[in-house]
From TrEMBL:
GO cellular component, one term: cytoplasm
Keyword Hydrolase recorded: yes
Superkingdom as given in the UniProt entry: Eukaryota
CDD domains for the chain: WRN_exo
UniProt keyword list: Hydrolase, Nuclease
Record-given protein name: 3'-5' exonuclease domain-containing protein
Region of interest called Disordered, as start-end residue ranges on this chain: 74-121, 136-185
Source organism (scientific name): Arabidopsis arenosa
Residues in coiled coil: none
Length: 323
C-alpha cells in the first residue's frame, strides 16, 4: 500500500499533515514562520539529544527549488516570467507598434501617460505627426508614481530609467532577475528526525531563527539526503545563506543483499531493497514543479516528506554517524 496523506490542521502560521508510511505515522509541518521553526527544532533536540541518547543525531534532508524554465504557478495578475527578452507583440497595441527590451535614449518631453518614445525618429516628419509615427518602448521607469515623472527642457528624464524590483504587471526578464534563473536558490528545506518532519518554505521566510543555522552546522549531527550534490550550494545562495555540515548521499553507503554497492540505483530501488517498501519513488514531474508557491499541494508535501523521512531511516540503518 502506497503512502497516503491527510491534512491535520490549517493555521495562519503553518499547515499540519499526517502521512501513513506503511503503517507508521509521520507528522509533517509546512511553514515559513520563525516561531514554528524554532519550536520544531527545540522539540527535536529535547527528544533526541543529550547524554541519555546513545547515538548522535541523524537528520534526513531534502532541498527543493524551481527549475529555471518553469513559470510561477500563482503569479500576480498580468505578470509572467521569461528567460528571454520578449519577442511577442502586445495584443492590444495599435498597428505597427512594437516593443523593445533596449532602454530608450531619450524621451519626449510631453509623452502620453505610460508611453515612451525613442529618439530614433523617421528621416522626415512633421512635428504634429510625432505621436503617429513614434516608436514605443515597454521598459518602465524605476520609480512608479501615479503622476508621470517630471522632465527637464532637454527632453531627458530627471530620474533613472529602470526598475530593480518591477511592480505588478511588469515583465521579468532574465537580465532583471539576475542569475536566479540560471542558478535558482532553494525554495524549501525538508528536515526529518524520527516521525517528525518539517518543510521550511525558505522563499517566504522573512527571517529564520539562529537555532536553524546552529542546527544545520552542528558537527555532531549527520545529515543524509539522496542525489543531493547541489543541495548545499542551493542553500548557500538562498536569501538566508544557510550552511550545512556533513551532508551525505545515501547512495554512496547502501549495499544490496549481495553486498553490491547501490550508488547507481534509484531512490525507489534503494528503499525497496534496504527497507522492504516497494513503489516509493520520486516523481520527476513533482520534483520539477514550482516550489516557490505559498500553498504547496499535497503531492509536493507527500514527496518532500517521504524523501527526507526515508533518508533519515536509511541513515540510521547504515549507522552513518560513524562515517
Amino acid at each position: 500500500m502506497a503512502p497516503t496523506i491527510r491534512i491535520g490542521g490549517n493555521y495562519s502560521t503553518h499547515q499540519e499533515y499526517s502521512i501513513d508510511v506503511f503503517g507508521n505515522t509521520l507528522s509533517v509541518t509546512v511553514t515559513s514562520d520563525f516561531a514554528i521553526i524554532s519550536q520544531w527544532i527545540r522539540d527535536v533536540e529535547y527528544n533526541n539529544c543529550g547524554p541519555y541518547y546513545q547515538q548522535p543525531l541523524v537528520v534526513g534532508v531534502g532541498v527543493q527549488w524551481t527549475p529555471p524554465l518553469s513559470y510561477d504557478a500563482n503569479p500576480p495578475p498580468n505578470r509572467y516570467y521569461s528567460d528571454q527578452p520578449s519577442r511577442s507583440y502586445d495584443a492590444n497595441s495599435p498597428p505597427n507598434r512594437y516593443y523593445s527590451d533596449q532602454p530608450p535614449r531619450s524621451y519626449d518631453a510631453n509623452p502620453p501617460p505610460s508611453r515612451y518614445y525613442s529618439n530614433e525618429l523617421p528621416r522626415s516628419y512633421n512635428a504634429n505627426d510625432l505621436q503617429r509615427c513614434g516608436y514605443y518602448e515597454h521598459s518602465s521607469p524605476r520609480d512608479h508614481y501615479a503622476d508621470p515623472p517630471q522632465y527637464n527642457y532637454t527632453g531627458n528624464p530627471s530620474r533613472p530609467s529602470y526598475c530593480a524590483n518591477p511592480y505588478r504587471g511588469d515583465y521579468i526578464s532574465d537580465t532583471q532577475r539576475g542569475e536566479s534563473n540560471s542558478d535558482p536558490p532553494a525554495d524549501t528545506l525538508q528536515l526529518c528526525v524520527g516521525s517528525k518532519c518539517i518543510i521550511i518554505q525558505l522563499g517566504h521566510c522573512d527571517q529564520v531563527p539562529n537555532s536553524l543555522h546552529t542546527f544545520l552546522t552542528d558537527p555532531e549531527t549527520t545529515y543524509v539526503g539522496v542525489w543531493n550534490s547541489q543541495d548545499a550550494g542551493k542553500l548557500a545562495i538562498s536569501k538566508h545563506q544557510l550552511q550545512i555540515g556533513k551532508l551525505l548521499d545515501i547512495r554512496q553507503y547502501m549495499n544490496d543483499s549481495r553486498g553490491k554497492s547501490m550508488r547507481g540505483c534509484s531512490f525507489e530501488e534503494i528503499v525497496e531493497e534496504c527497507m522492504g517498501y516497494p513503489g516509493v519513488r520520486l516523481d520527476p514531474t513533482i520534483s520539477m514543479s514550482d516550489w516557490s508557491v505559498y500553498n504547496l499541494d499535497r503531492d509536493q508535501v507527500l514527496q518532500a516528506s517521504i524523501d527526507a523521512h526515508a533518508c533519515h531511516l536509511l541513515g540510521v540503518l547504515a549507522r552513518l554517524w560513524v562515517v
